[in-house]
Amino acid sequence: MADPTDPTAVNGQQDARDDLLSELVSHLSNNRTELRQEWARRIGEARLLTALTEEEIFSEATSVYDNYVEVLETGSVEALQDYARNLSERIIPRGVETDEVLGIVLLLRDVLARSLFEKYQADFQVLNEVLDAYEPAANRIANTVGVNFVQERERIIRQQQEAIRELSTPVLQVRERLLILPIIGVLDGQRARQLTEQLLRGIRTNRARVVVIDITGVPAIDSTVANHLVQTVDASRLMGASVIITGLSSEIAQTLVTLGVDLSKVNAVGDLQGGIEEAERLLGYTVISGAVDKADDRV
Amino acid sequence: MAVPILKQGPFLIASIQSALTDTDVLQLRDDVMAQVTRHRSKGIIVDVTSLDVMDSFVSRSLRGIAMMTRLRGAETVIVGIQPEVAFAMVQLGMSFEDVQTALDLEEGLALLEAGFLGT
């Protein structure tokens, strides 16, 4: 048994491991077709990647396999990282889940380990050394692919959150000095804050006197958000604008009353149409329909 | 720094130029009351556009001025509250419920004129 503290012995071990690794790589390259098929078969058996067709699975399996062998050979995961990112980009929109991706990488690991067991079953000592060389590399690969997949997903989620944030609070001018704020979707604390900020800015830039906040598209409201809404109404008043809230659903109305939120200062109107009519009344507009007269003239 | 108070017809305009110390605020209150008495003004506009922050003392004093001038027969309108200031005030529970507010000087004058001509 070599002394592990002896530097030459360590170098010797390293060399031996490199030799084993290159032997391993040539084994994997030689048996590329069978191992790949075996892997694809087991993916099908485990019902992973059901969103992809069989041909797609096979072609992706080929690329992953080749990348896998390359990592074992060179020890550099950069090419694999790029490939994993690219693969994630392609398969995430098709509904592939994290467990599936981890599943197939671990399956490949198992398939290759099996083939190593088979090859070296005669000599336990060599098998042990081969596995010593193979396992860290294989773990690193599984890690890389998994992490890249999750990172890609997170990137997409961040992007979508950004998009939702931008879409979420438009402030629209419908008449001189009249703004409308249609709110769709769940209001949480952050969105409510953003809404207030945009509304108050909008009041200043558009010199609004009346604002209609339409919450028809809001399914539920909690007490924090309700209080925030009341504060927004007060703050708007400080800037000289009166606020009309429309589209409070009966569920929300019940919740607010049950929670005991004080809405006595809030001017609420049933629907958006009513809200706009009320706003026009406050601003002194009268809407006159001209279409009817013209139609009468023609007859 | 003292706040200049301008006479504009039946109204007074107090335009705050920079951050106010507590003494300035008290000075403003005394000046406004003196001018209202002298000119028999019907309305006062306090323009706070240049204030980026408004502490509780300033807000309370402004509300006090509004209440006092009302007792002398003049309506006070606070104009030009910045969005950030407005929300901070509401969060601190100072929502000026019994004080008139308007977007800017022009709006404030329009509000006073409407109220003045209306009565």
TrEMBL record, chain A:
InterPro entries: Bact_StressResp_Reg, STAS_dom, STAS_dom_sf. Pfam families: STAS. The lineage of its organism: Bacteria, Bacillati, Actinomycetota, Thermoleophilia, Solirubrobacterales. Residues 168-279 form the STAS domain. It comes from the Bacteria. It comes from Solirubrobacter phytolaccae. This is STAS domain-containing protein.
UniProtKB/TrEMBL annotation, chain B:
InterPro entries: Bact_StressResp_Reg (IPR051932), STAS_dom (IPR002645), STAS_dom_sf (IPR036513). Residues 1-112 form the STAS domain. PROSITE patterns: STAS. It comes from the Bacteria. This is STAS domain-containing protein.
